[in-house]
Fold:
Amino acid sequence: MKRKNRPLDGVVVLDLGQVYQGPYATYLMAKAGATVIKIEPPGGEPVRRREDLSKGSGVPFALFNGYKQCITLDLKSEQGKSVLKRLAAKADVLLENYAPGVMDRLGVGWDVLHAMNPRLVYASGSGYGLTGPDRDKLAMDITVQAASGMMSVTGFEDGPPVKAGPAVVDLMSGVHLYAGVVTALYERHFTGVGRLVEVSMQESVYHTMASNLNFYYDHNEVPPRTGNQHGGRSAAPYNVYAVKDGHIAIIGVNDAHWQGLLKVIRREDLTADPRFADKVNRVKHIDETDAVVAEGLRDFTRDQACALLDANKVPYAPVRNIVEVTNDRHMHERGFLEWFEHPRFGRIAIADSPIRIHGTDRLPPAASARLGEHTEEVMTSVLGINRDEFQDLQAAGAFGPASASQPTTSK
Structure:
């Protein structure tokens, strides 16, 4: 069979990921051409179970689970575990983000599956990793933001710690899972043997605090919350400034940016002011620097200010809301965002993979499948099960009943 023009064509992935972390990693694999078989408990994974609440509650499932074949397995039944082992024997990758130890207790963990299929890359996402004293702590995006230190440096100095608005920990750890799987697949090309790949949510975001570590090592004290100023207090201007009809984020990392900004706000008279003569002095007088910029911008509309900042080559971006971003002309023209009529949710914007490998064929938008939609198809095409055997497995509870309880996930 001719290989399709997609990097991961021919790679078969068993996706036991739930919520955002695991499903995002496997979504990137699916967009790169892998065959992804999403394995859900009989009642559906947690995000799918939100679908009945509202259109909006169901859209995240659609964003992370298009292009996947969806099946159900009851991993608390012997028949369900047997089917998973049979699938794993034929797969290239298995990814899960159950709590550490759950898959081992079920008898379908790394040791068992690796012995059956040495080529299998087994990926595990968890809050704090598979080892260490915090291994068994429950983990969600907000709790890991707190435990990782991210929350301590987010917000304003005179206010409480604040979480980042988006699910940054879930998604960053998902990206690391993807990278770990692809790295292990690359090695397997030479060795013929798969690896156990693990990603800790906590560890995946440590490097995001590089600027705050800058402050810690410079001052030997706990970094403060700095609002929209630089986390290391080592750049100015660096803030979000109000205009008549919104806000604009501006950063000036060198003297040319500062000179351009002075032209925008018509304050070239400050060029020779020693408080703002260079980066070091602007940081020393950070509040005065911010005050000059804030005063200079307050009478502009957002569009007026943006046009002038563009013309004077000052790094900036308007603070846009989610409606503006979803309708962003740039991302739509690049094909990253594409309007799609989802059979369940109606018109939504489907996002492509941010990873672009030029010259490969891109997949068109696709709807996320219904719960268990491909169960019989996968059993037939992957395992060669005939109709009678499928019905026997179904009667024995391999795929559910819908009320069956399932292992608790790590997220």
